Amino acid sequence: MTNVLPETAAGPPPPFDPELGAALAVIGEQMPPALTADMIQPMREGALLADLTDDDLARAGAFTVTRRQVPGPAGDPDVELLILTPTGATTPLPAIYHTHGGGMVVGNNRTGVEVVQDWAAEVPSVIVSVEYRLAPEHPHPAPVEDCYAGLVWTAEHAAELGIDPERIVIAGASAGGGLAAGVALMARDRGGPALLGQMLLCPMIDDRNDTVSAIQMAGRGVWDRTANDTGWTALLGEARGGADVSPYAAPARATDLSGLPPAFVDVGSAETFRDEDVAYASAIWRSGGQAELHVWPGGFHGFDMMVPQAAVSQDARAARVRWLSRLMGM
Amino acid sequence: MKDLAVRLAALDPDAGAALHVIAYFDRLAEARAGLHTIVRGAAVLSGCAARLVDDERRVRIRVEPDGASTPSGVRDKDWISAAAGSATLWLERSGPPGPVDAMVLERAAAAARAVLERTRGHAAQADPALVELVIDAGAAEPLRLQAAARLGFNPDDPVRVVALGSGAVRLLPEPGGLPEGRAGVGPAGPVVRLPASYEGAVLALRFTAEGTESDPGPRVVHADELGGLALLAAAVGPGTEPVPDQRALDRAAATAPWVLATLDAVARSASLRAAATALRVHHSTLQDRLAHTLPVLGWDVRDPQGRLRLHLALALRRLHNNQR
């Protein structure tokens, strides 16, 4: 959905939730809202995205940690899957196939996986987190094709992984949410693995970067319009915002959202992605699909991960687990 | 990315971290955040559980450093705390304080105090008319329940009446800390039983003493613990003649300033040795004192029957001094 309002028509930005705003005052210094291309490499090397160790991932024996190199897209390198299996499972479990965030330009298959582990602690599931190639060195379609290839392998090897192939949910946050939505579209169009659901957390799905919320939140919060421009330009180059952008890269470009698995979409009201995410849920409904949409008041991008203690973050996290357990029939 | 306490700990506690703490609570105050949010901020920034308790206003909030609200358990005297008006804010840290603990306590307590004054400034407890109504056995039950609700009590909340030496009456949610000073404490029960708790509290107050040399005895008495002594209260009115044992007690008291305190200690201690310890005198000194007192008193307080007579005489003396 293209926003037709001129920039001046946007009102003032919605206020941050008081608790989140106060935390942002602490976080803000280390996380500028704007990210430019020259900051990509320092961010990749920075301590902000410090990796979880295998010990962290094992959570005192609650998960078995394995890594598999599996075939990538035809003619491309293998992709690495990080597989976290709850210990002691005796029957096939549901799977959460995770596509990490990081604006398409940073992060690895451990980024944000602790959030997914929290879900799996309540809804026992095997976690498969895919390492995809990053932009700008590897522009579209490398990231989304890597993610798709990893999903295909996972579904084909479900038995070996202790996964119930009927219950695979794809999930990702931010750029990972965009990739999850793109992979769901690919799976539909290519007759690929049947997904039980798609969990799109504050997903990055619209390269046009011109919604009211993108305009309102410029220079504020986390991942503002400038940062978004940096991410999309890295992924799409000159094509960004133009007429020929694939819906697999920017799912907001999809004109047909029928035939998709049920979606969970959440986003903060005080972030760049608010309007594109609300529009995506609406488009799913318009196509006759199922979506659960949460717009958390005063939430900035990734609020629940950066300030998990806040009341609104606790509610957001609880809503996801409830959706998962309903979806998985637990 | 997630641990604010770790982030703060990594900063210079004298400058950087302190500024962040100040900024955090200033933002909460500007946005008129509530008490839970403030207590959660204290827990999150300090990295240890925080609790805010205001017995009068019936506020009881405890938050873990992960943001979860949990019920309050027993307090530890080693925790650091700060006053927030009539409330107290604790950081549940027994070991050495973290680098920002003092600043977190100060700013969070100030923020909590502002919220308490804004939202509960006219503490319902302060409205004596409502308190009078809930303890009035003559008032209709629906009226009493309504008044209790306005004071913040649900019908099934266990509540006690506390009658203070000053003549004031307080309602005390169970469990709760007693107010300062001489107090008679009524039994805990549901709101409809408050008139009975008030009766008990007033009765118990008559058994209290100043706790001084001239008026030794307990400053706080619970009606629950009076047992059969409660019956004595009805027997002692303003015009009641003192019984001979009470007169003997008064005579003994006139012979030396330590007599009443000594006899009270003997009555209340498990043994003469314990009484001597309580009085901070040598065991032999206590024996000498009792030898001095015995002829004036006319009975020996060291045998069981004598101790009972002493108990009763002391109680009767307090009942005479403390008329309704």
TrEMBL record, chain A:
**UniProt keyword annotation of Hydrolase present:** yes
- Can you name the source organism? Paractinoplanes abujensis
Q: Which GO terms describe its molecular function?
A: hydrolase activity
Q: What is the lineage of its organism?
A: Bacteria, Bacillati, Actinomycetota, Actinomycetes, Micromonosporales
UniProt cross-references to InterPro entries, sorted A to Z: AB_hydrolase_3 (IPR013094), AB_hydrolase_fold (IPR029058), GDXG_lipolytic_enzyme (IPR050300)
What name is this protein filed under? Acetyl esterase/lipase
Q: Which UniProt keywords are given for this protein, alphabetically ordered?
A: Hydrolase
Where does the record place the Alpha/beta hydrolase fold-3 domain?
97-304
Q: Where are the transmembrane segments?
A: none
From TrEMBL, chain B:
Cross-referenced InterPro entries: CdaR-like_regulators, PucR_C-HTH_dom, PucR_C-HTH_sf
Q: According to its UniProt record, what is one Pfam family this protein matches?
A: HTH_30
Q: Where is the PucR C-terminal helix-turn-helix domain?
A: 260-315
Going by the entry's taxonomy, the superkingdom of the source organism is recorded as Bacteria
Return the protein name: PucR C-terminal helix-turn-helix domain-containing protein
